[in-house]
Amino acid sequence: MRKTSTPRNHPAKRVMQRRDFLATSLAIAAAGCNMSQGPDAAEAAGSAAQGEGKWIPLFNGTDLDGWRASENTASWRVRDGVLAADGPRSHLFYVGNAAPTPFRNFDFMVDVITEKSANSGIFFHTDFVETGSPPKGYEVQINNSYPMTGNSPEFRRTGGLFAIRDIYKAWLPDDVWFRVRVCVIGKRIRVWVNDIPTVDYVEPEDPPRPRNRRLRRVSEGTIALQAHDPGSRMRFRNPRIRLLPDDADPFAEPRASEEGYGLKPGWIDQMAALGLPITDFHVHIRGGMTVEKAVLRQAVTGINCGVLENVGRGWPIDDNDKLRSFLDGAAGRPVFVGVQVNDRDWADVLAPDLVARLDYVLADTMIMPMPHDDSPPVKLWITDKYTIDDPDAWMERYVRHNLRVLGEPISILANPTWLPPPVASQYDRLWTEERMRKIIGAAVDRGVALEINASSGYPPLKFLQLAKEMGAKFSLGTNNFDDKPIDMRRCFEMIDTLGLRFADMFLPRPKA
User: Fold this and answer.
1) Which of 23, 57, 231, 486 has its CA 20 to 30 A from that of 444?
2) 261-296: per-residue pLDDT in tens?
3) Chain centre to alpha carbon of residue 480
């Protein structure tokens, strides 16, 4: 009599396999998915914890055994031992037995390389679908240089959780391998790219999702890789996974707090779904704030960051060598990098090749020649350095000063319509609609965004409403003095009140 055995894909066998793998991964649970651990360190920790049980390869390097492609199946090939995506839309789903699906809590890694203008994604907690993009589960975006063109430009970049916790900076080069790591424990989702944290997201209760993304929720499922379109050529190598217990503690590895930023549960999710690139472009590297802290803050809050230093005589960056050092130190991070210029001749002083590396240039009008246009510049917030005897005459000079600043090759005007303490109480009289229109018109003509500041109260709602009517673009900014959180509710309220959308928001274009 022929001996019978449990069929390879029988549900009972998958249950037994899952139990075996979960049993061997119990020792890993204590370590969890350490956000500070690099991928190599994580692999070593997994091997040590499991003994013989270690990261489970999901691809044999030879053929597509264990994987199933949807719709345009010819878009997937194995070339030189790696998975190659090249062709019309298709998704490659893991359906093998090396690790038993569905995956719930897991740690996943894969190496990726993109060619120019490629767009892709890594889906998890998803299920096979024959056509279209998988509606179930989450997607980690892969996009280093996909062009921002057309009515719906693709501005979401590598490392973000697509339309949930997006990354807006194009920060990785094409034609260079990089590693993506995804860890899911309970409702906590973390993503690293090249050991840099890009997402540390906790799904809220009843997460807000548009109808077409209502299944973007933590559950269980498989992994899928995306071939986006015929122009998106890319390769994946060495996909591997380690399973974690269903009862693993999501917070065994501490998570930074979201408190202090004025965020309501699910608000960033809503803005991401609407395609609003919520970014604080006024994050100074000072008072304990560092680029690394900005990166981690961004991963936890979902508020993207633009980090900057003050440039000018007597400021932290006062020569090109210091500017180069700042740029080099911030390179290869998923944050925008800019400067705040304080001298009006900055464009003649800074090296053009260094300025070209900046994502943006921010300026304000708080330093002005006093008492005359040919006088030395004065910091207007230091009130014992000057007097304003005739507010109306001074205001005419101040408007001209604003227009001079807007005439420089800047990207953002911070704290628009700010007034110094001696005349601040006369705001409504001094800032007439005619004067406001001059400032807004110059900003629109020059393509300069107007900052909505989180804490200064500038500019007021009536200015913002007029600016919206006149077609201005807007940015958000906190202007920190240390590394403490700053409440951004004013920014969020203005977005809602003004009904701002993607086309209204400043977003630097990637470098060519």
Assistant:
1) 486
2) 999 999 999 999 999 999 999 999 999 999 999 999
3) 19
